[in-house]
Amino acid sequence: MATADGATAGPDGMITDPFFYLCAIPAVLLFGMAKGGFGGTIAVVSVPLMALAVPPLQAAAILLPILVVMDAVALWSFRGQYDRLNLKILLPAAVAGVVVGAFFFRYLPDDAIRILIGLIAVVFCLNYWFNPGYHQKTGPNVMKGSFWGMVAGFTSFGIHAGAPPVSVYMLPQQLDKKLLMGTFAIFFATVNVVKLFPYAWLGSFQTANLMTSLVLIPLAPIGVRLGFYLLHKVNERTIYRLAYFFLCVMGVKLLYDGTTGLLVQGAGTA
Question: Which domain holds residue 39?
Fold first, then answer.
């Protein structure tokens, strides 16, 4: 049986395609590791990785309930540690970005979304490689925070990739690591709960997606705890290098698939 999005599903609606789980299991674990404080922007790998097996919006819909569980674990882990002023600046703008994303992504075909995700992935990689980001220490700024908060809400809605934009704003402030991660935990927990409403409105929580999310949810706390453990055991720079290399490869693949799909579709309607 196939889902509405074309993925193979079993009688109970759960996706059964082995290749999907080959992509989804590491994607969920990587996102959990990011929530656990190990390589925050590494989470941008997850949706492009899953989008190799299912349509991008279906990948995002499957991930969202899992992220809510991860957020609960992260909130508990970093409880009481957050920067109130930065949250006051970032959150209203992020909610606006989610609203824009809800109206924007619904009108794009899957191939166009693949191109958008691939482009974002490649740009993030190029920025990582060619702009190391050595900045002087900054403080909270309403204009910058509102801009990057809105970008984070927009990219978070479509592909759960809000960490890189908000990191551009937050990292130069050089906050204490636990304070930074606690601020991130509240920010993304709020944004992900807000995203539940437009996702439901857009009909993204189909039986196949929810059943598949349920199967993958046990990986959520494992990924978060793995992030806590690796934070002190593994060279973070090495993980970043590998993650961004594979992200770039996946981004190029999605750009190719999306461009080819649109060209074929265009030729078919010509």
Answer: 18-269
